[in-house]
Amino acid sequence: MTTEQPPVEHLDVIVVGAGISGIGAGRYLATELPGKTSAILEARATSGGTWDLFRYPGIRSDSDLHTFGYAFKPWRDEQSIADAPRILAYLRETITENGLDDRIRYSHRVLSAAWSTAEARWLVDVERTDTGERLQLSAGWLFCAGGYYRYDEGFTPAFPGRDRFRGPVVHPQHWPEDLEYAGRRVLVIGSGATAVTLVPAMAGTAGSVTMLQRTPSYVVPVPRSDALAARLCALFGEERGYALARRKNIAVGTATWRFCRRYPRAARRLIRWVTARQLPAGYPVDEHFNPPYDPWDQRLCAVPDGDLFRAIREGRAEVVTDRVATFTEDGVLLESGRELAADVVVTATGLDVQAIGGIALTVDGEPVHLPDTVVYKGMMLSGVPNLVLAIGYTNSSWTLKTGLVCEHFCRLLAHLDAHGYDVARPEPADPDMPTRPLLDLAAGYVRRAADRLPRQGDRAPWLTSTSYPADVRLLRAGSVTDPELHLSRAASPAAVPAGAAR
């Protein structure tokens, strides 16, 4: 006696991740292609991605919400550089307003996906993180919207003597709800966006806060609220005013980045001048806020209303530039011989970069090795059919790029349907095309992961653009067809296996 296996549920599109990119993808699919079946699989029990995961004090965006928000949903809050609870509320409003609640399947972690050319589908292995149950789904397309870092752990260097320290050592990615730091000496190790957020946020409660950095970062004060955006909304109405504010901020951001890259010495002098004006007279600016690299070799750190500088001026925070020699029982001993006393140590030392959520891919039984692939139009992988990955900008708001990817993806699906195609597979015309790392940043977290990530080519459509205007031309206005994107029909008469649920 044989037991009949239940049919595998089939969906036109599986979106992986219910963060800002996945919610956006779900909305575009629901509105642009309402006839398509889709589901958003989220490994965690809640939506929001980064904005629900991180709970450390002061967690906020480092991009303005007029560009970090969706093009289709105005940002109504007075904060332009917004804290996480406001962003999370915005994302969950988007879910409800677009009827996505029933499409999100929580506690569903995608483990692997196997592509079959004969059937033109992905067979996806899923784990229920709440029960441990394993199940399978099939899909015509995978849209990987899980961001670019591991959610289960951050990056912490191996500090000598760490086990000797008698107090708690905390990574911001796993902030304990019961961490007590009021009146205590806090040492924050790091100099990036997380560190410059934590220091002023904790300085109001802690006894003292010290930011220990190995290398300075460019730290730039920005207004927390956008007065001009508010004025535009008052004059032209919410939707049109938001669109104008968005265009204004895109233009300002693009011009700033181009200026920094074209005139790095002038940009360095300008940033130093702005920084010096924010700090007390005689402060050692060059020691603590003058990096050895050019602006935008790494991301600039934005501090709303100059809160980090204000904490330093008021004596509530200190910056130390040195290297850790070893932890001690009561703090950290530096290579200079100075010892920093601490009751709590926060290792704001970065992320562990990971592409496509760590999903193991195979194509017709062959494993996909990501470093052997090249990214097509910043959204697909060479040799991998019917898969899209949402990778946002590193030099601008993440969502500007992922929004364009969603638009292009929906247009591509419509084109395939109109012409009877099932499969889209990017392949470089020149298999010997020179390649280089996908992400053009010198940041440590990028360099550590370079050999685990896909690569980019030296020409379109394999060159990953960092220019929003260029991507508007390519992804919004440009054709969805390309000589190096091969479209075909399923080899098998039935793309969906017999008995599969639609």
CATH homologous superfamily designation of the largest domain: FAD/NAD(P)-binding domain
Q: How far is the first residue's CA from the last residue's CA?
A: 28 Å
User: Major β-sheet, in short?
Assistant: 9 strands, mixed
The CATH class label of the largest domain is Alpha Beta
Please, what is the average pLDDT?
92
Q: DSSP helix count? A: 13
SS-derived structural category: alpha/beta
Strand content: 15-25%
Radius of gyration: 24 Å
Residue ranges: pLDDT <50 for 5 or more in a row?
493-502
Q: Tell me how many strands there are.
A: 25
If classified by CATH, what would the architecture of the largest domain be?
Answer: 3-Layer(bba) Sandwich
Shape: globular
CATH topology descriptor of the largest domain: FAD/NAD(P)-binding domain
Fraction of helical residues: 25-40%
Structural domain tally: 2
Detailed description of the structure:
The chain has 502 residues and is of the alpha/beta class. The protein folds into two domains: 9-152 and 352-488, FAD/NAD(P)-binding domain, CATH 3.50.50.60; 162-223 and 281-347, FAD/NAD(P)-binding domain (3-Layer(bba) Sandwich), CATH 3.50.50. It contains 13 helices and 25 strands. The strands form seven sheets. Strands 1, 2, 3, 4, 5, 6, 17, 18 and 21 form a nine-stranded mixed sheet that branches. It has a five-stranded parallel sheet with strand order 7-16-8-9-12. Helix 5 (193-203) crosses helix 10. Residues 493-502 have low confidence and may be disordered.
